């Protein structure tokens, strides 16, 4: 008997690659790129595992994890996000996810997080992002969320506007 897995991610190339890899690892995979279709499918079928992107174009992955947990409390859900921070991790666990991984996540890292028991932590990534790179990506994300308004971004990050401008003018640090 195959383990039933639902993958919900609006990034089609990533979703296709992940689906193929998980099928090779013995899962029976169904994948969706949007909130509405996946929500309806979750109502129809119980899944053993779920991999959900946090931000979908038409909804929240956190809401989907909550819905999955309501429909089948035994489903092991994993949240993937490009917007990783402590608040996101806490929200993911509170809604029912077993773990949360920042993107880009390696296929093996996703697999191990999905199947690992609650007592063991997955192994650390082979090539984690540097602290400088994580800081730079966070600043870029907040800048975009503030509609590229330097003053508003500086206020939200609690830094001087000129300091932020210097950081934004530099290239991304190496990973």
Written account of the structure:
It is a single chain. The protein folds into two domains: 3-115, 3-Layer(aba) Sandwich (Rossmann fold); 131-169, Arc Repressor Mutant, subunit A (Orthogonal Bundle). Helices cover 49% and strands 19% of the residues. It is built from eight helices and seven strands, in the order βαβαβββαβαβαααα. It has helices at residues 12-24, 35-44, 61-71, 86-95, 107-115, 131-145, 150-157, 161-169, and strands at residues 3-8, 27-32, 49-53, 55-56, 59-60, 76-81, 97-102. The protein has a five-stranded parallel beta sheet with strand order 2-1-3-6-7, with helices on both faces. Helix 2 packs parallel to helix 3, helix 6 (131-145) crosses helix 7 and helix 7 (150-157) crosses helix 8 (161-169). The N and C termini lie far apart (40 Å). The mean pLDDT is 84.
Estimate what percentage of residues fall within beta strands: 15-25%
Q: Unreliable runs, pLDDT <50, ≥5 residues?
A: none
- Cα distance spanning the termini: 40 Å
Query: What's the structural domain tally?
Result: 2
- DSSP strand count: 7
Map the helices and strands.
Blueprint: E1 3-8, H1 12-24, E2 27-32, H2 35-44, E3 49-53, E4 55-56, E5 59-60, H3 61-71, E6 76-81, H4 86-95, E7 97-102, H5 107-115, H6 131-145, H7 150-157, H8 161-169
Parallel strand pairs: 1-2, 1-3, 3-6, 6-7
Antiparallel strand pairs: 4-5
């Amino acid at each position: 008997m195959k383990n039933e897995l639902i993958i919900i991610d609006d990034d089609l190339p990533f979703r296709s690659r992940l689906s193929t890899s998980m099928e090779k690892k013995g899962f029976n995979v169904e994948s969706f790129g949007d909130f509405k279709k996946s929500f309806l499918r979750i109502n129809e079928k119980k899944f053993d595992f779920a991999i959900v992107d946090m931000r979908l174009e038409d909804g929240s992955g956190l809401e989907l994890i909550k819905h999955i947990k309501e429909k089948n409390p035994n489903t092991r859900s994993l949240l993937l996000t490009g917007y990783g921070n402590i608040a996101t991790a806490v929200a993911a666990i509170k809604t029912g996810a077993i773990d949360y991984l920042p993107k880009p996540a390696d296929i093996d890292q996703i697999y191990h997080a999905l199947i690992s028991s609650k007592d063991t932590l997955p192994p650390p990534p082979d090539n984690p992002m540097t602290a400088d790179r994580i800081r730079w990506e966070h600043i870029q994300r907040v800048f975009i969320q503030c509609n590229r308004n330097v003053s508003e971004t500086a206020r939200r990050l609690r830094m001087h506007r000129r300091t932020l401008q210097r950081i934004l003018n530099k290239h991304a640090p190496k990973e």
